Amino acid sequence: MKEKILFIVNPISGHHDKSKFPSIVDNLIDKDKYDYTIKLTEYGGHAAELTKQAIADDYDIIVAVGGDGTINEVATNMIGARQTFAIVPYGSGNGLARHLHLPLKAKKVITEVINKGIKAKIDTATVNGVPYVSIAGVGFDAIIADYFARDPNRGFKTYFKLITEKYFKFKPEKYHIILDDKEEFDCEPLFISFANSNQFGFNAAVSPHASLNDGLLDVCIFKKPKLVAVPYVAERLMTQHIDRTKYVDIHRAKKINVIRPKEDYANIDGEAIMMTKDVTVEINPLSLNILLPENKNK
Question: Model pTM?
Answer without folding.
Answer: 0.91
